[in-house]
Amino acid sequence: MTASLSNLSNLSALLGQPRFRKLCLAAACLMYATIVVWGSIPGARADIGRYLPGYVLHAGAYAILAVLWFLGSSGSPAARARKAVLAVAVMGAGDEFVQSFFPYRGADVRDWAVDCASAIVTSTFLAALLRPHLPAQSPRL
Fold first, then answer.
1. I need a labelling partner for 19 at 20 to 30 A (CA). Which of 42, 52, 70, 128 fits?
2. 141 is a domain residue
3. CA distances to 7, 25, 62 from 134, in Å
4. Domain span at 102
5. Is pTM, for the whole model, over 0.90?
6. Residue 76 — left, alpha, or beta (φ > 0 → left; ψ -120 to 50 → alpha)?
7. Per the domain annotation, does 10 fall within a domain?
8. Is residue 139, in this structure, part of any structural domain at all?
9. Is the CB of residue 123 less than 8 Å from the CB of residue 80?
10. CA-CA distance, 10 to 21, in Å (whole number)?
């Protein structure tokens, strides 16, 4: 029992560290840039599509982005969830916008909706799970 209490206090300390939050946001930006660039390579999306349908790719990738943005944000769990959902909505719209410029790709509002739904579910889950471990107001980044 003592080990689990120690782990929980370590988790709380880590989630409150500005350096950890900056790393999470940087990782989210790098991942997003990779998604946009990789999705712009002719045939890359079709190759991946043989293994996973598009909605699974979108849901998984944007759920990870939501986790990174949630952990990288400051504030209460609800504030972090709102920031993560907003960030993912903007990133997903940006991805679809970029895709609209390529003749071998196309923008699809349903993909954006999957991105947003994935962020909402992920962020809500994180807010509920981490509520006891996050201060109501943590220092701003």
1. 128
2. no
3. 14, 17, 23
4. 2-133
5. no
6. beta
7. yes
8. no
9. yes
10. 15
List, as own/partner pairs, every contact residues 29-32 make where C-beta atoms lie below 8 angstroms and the sequence separation is at least 24, other chains included: 31/61, 31/64, 31/65, 31/68, 32/65, 32/91, 32/94, 32/95
Q: Which amino acid is at 78?
A: A
Radius of gyration of the chain (CA): 17
**Of the candidates 45, 131, 36, 30, the residue with the CA atom closest to the CA atom of residue 92:** 36
Task: Work out the angle at residue 15's Cα, subtended by the Cα atoms of residues 9 and 19, and round it to the nearest 5 degrees.
Answer: 125
Tokens 């719209």 belong to residue: 93
Number of domains in the chain: 1
Tens of pLDDT, residues 23-39? 999 999 999 999 999 88
The tens digit of pLDDT for each residue in 95-138 reads: 999 989 988 777 889 999 999 999 999 999 999 998 877 766 54
